[in-house]
Automatic annotation (TrEMBL):
Organism: Aliidongia dinghuensis
One GO term (biological process): transmembrane transport
UniProt keyword Amino-acid biosynthesis present: no
Name the record gives this protein: Outer membrane protein
Entry keyword set: Signal
Entry keyword Signal: yes
Family classification: Belongs to the OmpW/AlkL family.
This protein's GO CC annotations: outer membrane
Signal sequence bounds: 1-22
Length: 218
């Protein structure tokens, strides 16, 4: 009888300990953003260039089209509040020159690869709604230029560094899943050389990037 009582007590203690561990795990999982955790997101982004330029020697202004593209990013939390985010995406834009001495010119299309690294501060990291702000650096590769072959036979673009500002909100949907809204502004410039440098354009693209998506915290 005593043995049965001890066995029953042991089973009860084992059950209680397992319940406590499960509760601890759930509490940890519900704890939100914590030091050492990693957030991976997939977003749809709208890239909205705010272009200013000068074109030599024919004058006029350069315009770059808006675009919508997929993006992947990862965030590592050094502390509950401080994190670093790296984004990767490619975008494709149509480039035109307006008001030149030769009229409006269809320059063609070009792809951009703009990996951006930002250092972030996350407010209320353990709450359901957690806003953040960040700043960092961007390096943009211009590749796969496709000239229009009407007036423009060849075009090239200089790769360049630029600064980045960021603000966003994470919303904890359930467990480790988050919805995300993010806005970035890149300070991005390049020099375009058309037809072997016969025409040069100094261009500030300075795009605002608006993104929405879903993330998972590891």
């Amino acid at each position: 009888m005593k043995f049965l009582s001890l066995a029953a007590g042991g089973l009860l203690l084992l059950g209680l300990s397992q319940y406590a561990l499960a509760e601890d795990a759930l509490a940890e999982d519900a704890g939100g953003k914590t030091a050492g955790s990693v957030m991976v997101r997939v977003r749809a982004i709208g890239v909205l260039p705010d272009t200013t330029s000068s074109i030599s020697p024919i004058g006029g202004q350069v315009d770059a089209s808006n675009t919508v593209d997929p993006e992947v990013d990862g965030t590592y939390f050094f502390t509950d509040n401080i994190a670093a985010e790296l984004i990767a995406a490619t975008t494709r834009h149509r480039i035109t020159a307006h008001g030149t001495a030769a009229g409006d010119i269809d320059v063609g299309q070009v792809r951009l690869l703009p990996p951006t690294l930002t250092l972030q501060y996350h407010f209320m990291p353990h709450e359901t709604i957690s806003p953040y702000a960040g700043a960092g650096v961007n390096y943009t590769w211009f590749f796969d230029p496709t000239p229009s072959h009407v007036v423009v036979q060849h075009v090239s673009y200089e790769n360049n560094f630029g600064a980045a500002l960021q603000a966003g909100i994470d919303y904890n949907i359930a467990g480790r899943w988050y919805a995300n809204l993010d806005v970035k502004h890149l300070f991005l410039s390049t020099t375009a050389r058309i037809n072997g440098g016969a025409v040069r354009a100094a261009v500030n693209l300075d795009p605002t990037i608006v993104g929405a998506g879903i993330g998972y915290r590891f």
